[in-house]
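Please check this.
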Amino acid sequence: MELDTTSTIGWIGAGRMGSEMIGRLLDAGYQVSVYNRTRAKASALLDRGAKIVESVGDLSAADAVFVTVSSSEDFVEVMLGDEGLLSRLSIPSVVVDSSTVAVEASEKVREAVRARGSMLLAAPVSGNPRVAAAGKLTMAVSGPAEAYKMVAPLLDAIGNGSTYVGDGDLARLVKLCHNLFLGVVMQSVSEITVLAERGGVNRATFLSYLNKSVMGSMFTGYKAPAVVNLDFEPTFTSKLLRKDFDLGLAAARALEVPMPVAGLVHQLVQQLVGEGYGDDDFATLIKLVAQGAHLQLVSENVQVNDGLS
């Protein structure tokens, strides 16, 4: 049975990404009850129609609960801790984990949820809070097909459509593949943009052309303002990208898949972290390319359409 706007939805974790995803559900007419460790950070959602609850356990009667927390440890705690979601006699039919957690933590929770007669879906998201607010997040989802069918309308309301990729934790492998590609594309965009600028074409003009061409994408569009105006406020840090390259290349090694291009970009991301850009957005890859070309980057200070408005 598909869940609809008469269903009760719970949400654990109202950080920047979680809040935008919750907002999408509220705007679509769903009833959402929210728990956040710091209650004040979730208060803005009250004006949009959310209900704020005092404990994770208060969400146990919901039809489905989404989780967007920051670490594997937090995920295990909110699910299996003394005051966690599974501490109550009744629990939701479906738990949707959209956090970035280790496979081991996911499997531990999956077994506990299964033992209680419920179902866990892994649904990592691709995008950042601005992408989420625009309704353009994408999600790979894995777990029981029955559970996916139940929550698919909610996933579609949150983002730009979801893709069911199979059982277990396959969605996490898909997300790693996505993020490997993210790094490779950012490196390539950095190289060709520096080449164009070295030859006399400013970055705004070149990226405007690129984003109108068949090679443009949602990603190259929403990264254009950062590249043009050198605004490296993080949406995804170099350290986080390095972590995903570590995990993705480990998976490639285990599955005996050669990845020479991704392997090279892995080392460039490592250099980025080593040179002090670890907490900046990974679009700072363009700085390394510019250094190699002896090009001094300067903000062009122009308004650039990111394609998300």
About this structure: The radius of gyration is 21 Å. DSSP finds twelve helices and nine strands in the chain. Strands lie at 8-12, 31-35, 51-52, 64-67, 94-97, 119-122, 125-126, 138-142, 162-166.
